[in-house]
Amino acid sequence: MAHHHDHDHDDHAPIEEGKAPSEFDLLEQAIRELLIEKNVFSADDLRRQVDRTDSVSPADGAKVVAKAWSDPAFKAQLLSDPKTAIEALGYDVGPAPNLVVLENTAALHHVVVCTLCSCYPRVLLGPPPDWYKSKEYRGRVVIDPRGVLTEFGTQLDDAVEIKVVDSTADMRYLVLPPRPADTEGMSEEKLATLVTRDCMVGVTFPDSPSN
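-> structure tokens emitted (211 positions)
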């Protein structure tokens, strides 16, 4: 399966500068201020949580993928009991939402979307990219996943089954992409550099070691 990836996916949905707050933004602000006023949590609690969330990046997910590529026992646990496996690496995934890890193979390719908003495995990937949140992606990938993947430079044989999975507030998905060829003997650290955010969503393949 060829992989041609030479453009910035964030160009699919550019950020609109100076845009007025949406109804959702105003509602979120009102609820946040009310919860602080009622001492459900403090402003400092919120700041610490935001700081912790902002510190997460796709590099964290890449380490998990690289470990699965290198350690068959860890891979088996990651697929059967993701939270336990991930917590064993030192990550705090919390009690909710539930996390499912889906393996992409030569016969089956998973693609992740959130058709209602932008639910995303932030605990391992950080904030979702703009294209993932866009109405265009959320609407089109369900109807024409093969066409959308082609726009990301991902060419799949017609025989490959494509399964689109819909994230929700209670369920998040992380894709375990196939290990690239010619990576035998590479350390986990080196393997992690081949793992991109987009391949853990299922819209691309990992980078080639020759890239």
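The beta strands are 98-103, 108-113, 161-166, 171-176.
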